[in-house]
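Final report, closing paragraph on structural work. Over the funding period we assembled a curated collection of sequence-structure pairs, and we close with a single example.
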Amino acid sequence: MSDADLDAVDPFHRFVLLSVIDLRARDDVPVHSFDVTGVCEDLLDEFEGLDEMAPGGVTRQRVINALTELESADLLGEERKESPTGKGRPAYSLDIAEEEILETLAEDDRFADAVELIRDRRD
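Its predicted structure, as stored:
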């Protein structure tokens, strides 16, 4: 992955990508939109600087759209997972080097504290 790949997506998409990485640090992969939405909300509560990443707040539909667009940009891979009722639902996993993404996001003051927390969770 190059910086250009990450530069191609807006700050909200980067925020969603950071949430996917956080779930991966918890070994909760592949991820589903409702899990990513929950992590986004948790990160917004914990880090004031992230509020500007999600003007108007975080909704599940907005996260679903971002996950789909990140998959289209080859930053995430999509997998189909079967729900308990037998329906297929999309699940996502990273298709890129996690550490490179964290390094790039850590250079942005808006994400730096959240990146540090996620790195601590991985260790």
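The two ends are 23 Å apart (CA to CA). Strands lie at 76-82, 88-94. We thank the funder for supporting this effort.
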